[in-house]
């Protein structure tokens, strides 16, 4: 079984707890609990972003961010037959959703449902060839029509039902995007003591629908430096050429050079590299052709900011079986904590 230094039970709690964009209430409660134990003060803003601050000895401040929200759904309709139809919150590949269990979070409590998938031998050729879309899916909750309409309402939130487990040297489950990075900043917060600079550990909202929480928080915090953590693509599986892997599991934490939304500050990513090498932390570079993270949210608000990003290589993103290597998680926590411990506020990140 895998060997690792982190608190697996906390990771399980974070990943298995529900929290779609704009409705991160349950996960926010866990984050506040953890940050209150390890930071000097904790604040929540009007959008729901949570910030735990460790005061430094200088006015220089660093924001470290990971997002709380997971991709999910909102109920858009309950049919006359009692089936539930969905609207996506975040980017789903509808092909992977059929025959999956979900939790519908109603006012009276959570209700289990299953996304319907008729037997393949009963489908016509036209039905087999049709491209799946979220709007065409239905959730069967096992209730008659009248009871279903009394139980589920338009606007109820829906998340996938899945547990997080150890699998060889990996951990796998739902919502590793981005709870495994949220977990990493919480673990790093436990290690940072008496920093030279003020450190804001930020858990952001609504990343999956447009980096909205980080964009607002960049204005409110106005940090001198921002580091974002998110998962990144690891297509190191059959069917992909090596040049398309982006990152590889087990090769270390990933220092982002670019993605579809940001080009990180060269001086910041070089210092991340130097810290990794001096501390003996395994790392790799990330060049992501598309997609974006909270890094861009901080760069695009309240003036020019030096930004950097650390990513955890993850297979099968935006599914219920996202998988990461435990050694890469350890390396991410180690690099972030070491970077913050050695940040004096005197490094020149201007270009």
What does the model show?
The protein has 351 residues and is an alpha+beta fold. The chain folds into two domains: 8-70 and 174-341, Zn peptidases (Aminopeptidase); 72-160, Beta Barrel (Elongation Factor Tu (Ef-tu), domain 3), CATH 2.40.30.40. It is built from nine helices and 17 strands. It has helices spanning 8-16, 25-38, 125-129, 145-151, 176-191, 212-221, 266-279, 294-299, 326-341; strands spanning 41-44, 50-54, 61-67, 72-78, 84-89, 101-106, 109-115, 139-140, 157-160, 165-167, 170-173, 198-204, 225-233, 253-258, 283-287, 307-314, 322-325. The strands form three sheets. An eight-stranded mixed beta sheet has the order 1-2-12-3-13-16-14-15, sandwiched between helices. Strands 5-4-9-6-7-8 form a six-stranded antiparallel beta sheet. A hairpin with a 2-residue loop joins strand 10 (165-167) and strand 11 (170-173). Helix 1 packs across helix 5 (176-191). The longest helix has 16 residues, at 176-191. The model has no long low-confidence stretch (mean pLDDT 94). It holds the Pfam family Peptidase_M42. Its cofactor is a divalent metal cation. This is Peptidase.
What order do the helices and strands come in, and which of them pair?
Blueprint: H1 8-16, H2 25-38, E1 41-44, E2 50-54, E3 61-67, E4 72-78, E5 84-89, E6 101-106, E7 109-115, H3 125-129, E8 139-140, H4 145-151, E9 157-160, E10 165-167, E11 170-173, H5 176-191, E12 198-204, H6 212-221, E13 225-233, E14 253-258, H7 266-279, E15 283-287, H8 294-299, E16 307-314, E17 322-325, H9 326-341
Parallel strand pairs: 3-12, 3-13, 13-16, 14-15
Antiparallel strand pairs: 1-2, 2-12, 4-5, 4-9, 6-7, 6-9, 7-8, 10-11, 11-17, 14-16
Helix pairs in contact: 1-5, 5-9, 7-9
């Amino acid at each position: 079984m895998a060997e690792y230094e982190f608190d697996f039970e906390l990771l399980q709690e974070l990943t298995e707890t529900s929290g779609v964009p704009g409705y991160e209430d349950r996960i926010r409660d866990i984050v506040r609990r953890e940050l209150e134990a390890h930071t000097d003060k904790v604040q929540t803003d009007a959008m729901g972003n949570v910030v735990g601050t460790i005061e430094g000895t200088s006015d220089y401040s660093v924001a470290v961010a990971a997002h709380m929200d997971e991709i999910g759904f909102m109920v858009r309709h309950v049919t006359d037959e009692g089936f539930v139809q969905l609207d996506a919150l975040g980017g789903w590949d509808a092909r992977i959703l059929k025959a999956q269990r979900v939790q519908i979070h109603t006012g009276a409590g959570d209700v289990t449902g299953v996304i319907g998938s008729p037997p393949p031998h009963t489908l016509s050729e036209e039905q087999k060839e049709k491209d799946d879309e979220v709007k065409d899916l239905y959730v069967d909750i096992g209730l008659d029509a009248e009871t279903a309409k009394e139980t589920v309402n338009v606007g109820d939130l829906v998340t996938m039902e899945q547990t997080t487990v150890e699998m060889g040297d990996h951990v796998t489950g739902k919502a590793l995007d981005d709870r495994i990075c949220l977990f990493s900043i919480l673990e790093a917060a436990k290690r940072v003591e008496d920093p030279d600079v003020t450190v804001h550990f930020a858990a952001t909202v609504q990343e999956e629908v447009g980096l909205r929480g980080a964009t607002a928080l960049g204005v409110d915090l106005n940090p001198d430096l921002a580091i974002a953590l998110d998962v990144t693509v690891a297509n190191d599986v059959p069917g992909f050429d090596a040049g398309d892997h982006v990152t590889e599991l087990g090769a270390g934490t990933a220092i982002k050079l670019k993605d579809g939304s940001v080009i990180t500050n060269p001086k910041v990513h070089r210092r991340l590299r130097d810290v990794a090498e001096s501390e003996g932390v395994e790392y790799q570079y990330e060049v992501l052709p598309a997609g974006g993270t909270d890094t861009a949210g901080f760069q695009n608000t309240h003036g020019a900011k030096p930004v950097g990003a650390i990513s955890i290589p993850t297979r099968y993103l935006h599914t219920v079986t996202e998988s990461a290597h435990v050694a890469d998680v350890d390396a991410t926590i180690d690099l972030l904590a070491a970077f913050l411990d050695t940040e004096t506020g005197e490094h020149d990140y201007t270009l």
